[in-house]
Amino acid sequence: MEINCICEYGKNIPEEQKTCPHCGVDLTPLHNLKALPRFYYEEGIKLARQRLWSIAIDKFKIAISLDPRLIEAYLALGNVYLQNGYCDHAIAEYEKALKFEPDNEDIKEAKMRAEKLGTSREPKAQLKETATKPPESKKQKKFGFVEKLSKSASKSRK
Fold first, then answer.
1. Alpha-carbon distance 15 to 5, whole Å?
2. Which of 13, 18, 87, 153 is least surrounded by CB atoms within 10 angstroms?
3. Residue 17 included in any domain
4. Who contacts 93 (Cβ-Cβ below 8 Å, separation ≥6)?
5. Which residues share a beta bridge with 26?
6. What pLDDT is attached to residue 31?
């Protein structure tokens, strides 16, 4: 991950370089700030895998607020909403992601899935959280919710 120094002369400085080659300022805080959105996104993925929905939602929202162009966070947030029956919320998140990447097939597919389910599925009254993995329903197996999250996480790291 590269950053630009506040002196405006140091450009595209890699994470391994701890000081600006032009002004000598310590770049560690800037590197840490740049890494925060990805950190919160990955925390959200871990929590979603544990079915800790509301905490995962919070982490994805933090990631998005820190980096509004982090497409994976919109997709993951939409997937969590969809998993819990909040199809309208899921569609809204997918649409936000599509504004940045209108040709992304994963997002288009997720949005279509949410639109199909939206007419036949009521949201759960509350996000039910369990720390252990419950048995998967037929719909969860069919759509591979956690696998989709894992795939989007691994794609984003490449």
1. 12
2. 18
3. yes
4. 74, 75, 77, 78, 81
5. 19
6. 86
Domain count, the chain: 1
* 130 domain residue, yes or no: no
**Which candidate, 158, 11, 156, places its Cα nearest to that of 73?**
156
63-79 as b/e: b if 16+ CB within 10 A = bbebbeebbbbbbbbbb
Q: Could you tell me the pTM of the whole model?
A: 0.71
Whole-angstrom Cα distance, residue 74 to residue 117? 18
Question: CATH code at 12?
Answer: 1.25.40.10
The CA-to-CA distance between both ends of the chain, in Å, stands at: 12
DSSP-based three-state secondary structure for 20: coil
Instruction: Give the integer Cα–Cα distance in Å for 84 and 158.
Output: 29
Residue with token string 């569609």: 91
Work out the average pLDDT over 28-36.
89
Token pair 């919109």 is found at: 74
Amino acid at 99: K
